UniProtKB/TrEMBL annotation, chains A, B:
Subcellular location: Cell membrane
Residue ranges of every copy of the Casparian strip membrane protein domain listed in the record: 8-136
InterPro entries (alphabetical): CASP_dom, CASPL-5
Stated family: Belongs to the Casparian strip membrane proteins (CASP) family.
Protein name: CASP-like protein
Membrane topology according to the record: Multi-pass membrane protein
Listed GO CC annotations: plasma membrane
Species whose genome carries this gene: Punica granatum
Quaternary assembly: Homodimer and heterodimers.
One Pfam family recorded for the sequence: CASP_dom
Taxon lineage: Eukaryota, Viridiplantae, Streptophyta, Embryophyta, Tracheophyta
Length: 151, 151
């Protein structure tokens, strides 16, 4: 059985999951603390999706950390398939949320009554963090998909 | 060699490609004819991406139609890999464009000065068509990815 760097149970996967958790937490915090995000559908959607991504990535980070410590990677096809599909769905949803948020921010910046620059820069940072989280999530998903046929 | 329904050179793939071409052309037409789309970044992005998807899908529809007629499917790993990667990238870009467009339309519908209902309904139809096109493009990409390891 090959060892694919970045697949479940390796230290690279642990780093990817930790990055996803950090970026999605940052996106959630920048969007929700002190900003009236609930006035816009796209921002509510981003907050919802980040609330799904954070527990998913954090749980898998714990699993990876444990696998690295006991040197016994998880290699059951059923569980791997669930992880691949979950990653896939969440990465699509994260991309959708990031794109929606950034297009709304762009519209707000160029509208007739521009939003206060403090708010808009926070929205922008939040969208950027969501894009980073999407990128890491896509990488995890691809690495695990690569491993799947060899199980 | 397995015959995966929906992979390059089958009649199912021809139907998928034809659907992509139709939906993306409809999305482009609803967005660009008689509507001032160039005032919004997200709408310009949608038009650009649809302008990429239409020739790509149309070319592959021609290839599939030819393969079905001469009963000699295309099965070269290099070309298949290019098709899978191209489908993948275009489906991500289409999803991004569809999400951006729909979130901007939602914002326009709920803003203080709502857009004329004729324009907004056209934007909505265009975004819906882009989502359909994304879905078919994802299906093509998954079917071809499934075939790739067996080549």
């Amino acid at each position: 059985m090959d060892e694919v760097p970045g697949s479940v149970g390796t230290s690279a996967s642990f780093a990817l999951r930790l990055g996803q958790t950090l970026f999605s937490s940052a996106s959630l915090l920048f969007m929700s603390v002190g900003v009236d995000f609930y006035g816009y559908t796209a921002f509510c959607y981003l907050v919802t999706i980040m609330g799904l991504v954070i527990p998913w990535s954090f749980t898998l980070a714990l699993v990876d950390g444990y696998s690295v410590l006991v040197k016994c990677p998880l290699r059951q096809p059923g569980i791997m398939a669930i992880i691949v599909v979950g990653d896939w769905v969440l990465s699509i949803l994260t991309l959708a949320a990031a794109c929606s948020t950034s297009s709304v921010v762009d519209l707000l910046l160029h509208s007739n009554e521009p939003c206060p620059s403090k708010f808009c820069s926070r929205y922008q940072i939040s969208a950027t963090m969501a894009f980073f989280s999407w990128f890491l999530s896509l990488a995890s998903s691809l690495f695990n998909l690569w491993l799947l046929p060899s199980l």
